[in-house]
Amino acid sequence: SVWATLSAFGADAKRLDGQLGMTAVLHTWGQTLTRHVHLHCLVPGGAVSASGEWHPAKSTYLFPVRALSRHVRGGFVSRLRQAIAAGRLPRLTDPKEIARVLDSL
């Protein structure tokens, strides 16, 4: 979801019109060593166009935060629903409860 969103936003002609790069590290714990699954992503402040030109970010933030958040969340929930429907997450046993939680996001 994260890479799909970032690459789509970067390729958008209204935004950077180019190819982004990204390095991501998956962490499965927080500061107190409790389960806290999250990504740390390092993304350059611009994109390379098809002709090889650098297109820098147009503001302090690479992309609008709310739009980016909605897109990532939507992609994640969509892929999670697909995995549940395909039976790839057998530990999740109550489909109605799962649907209720996902619908609230």
UniProtKB/TrEMBL annotation:
GO terms for molecular function: DNA binding; transposase activity. The lineage of its organism: Bacteria, Pseudomonadati, Pseudomonadota, Gammaproteobacteria, Chromatiales. Transmembrane segments: none annotated. It comes from Thiorhodococcus minor. GO terms for biological process: DNA transposition. It holds the Pfam family Y2_Tnp. Gene3D superfamilies: Tetracycline Repressor, domain 2. This is IS91 family transposase. Residues 21-101 form the Transposase IS801/IS1294 domain.
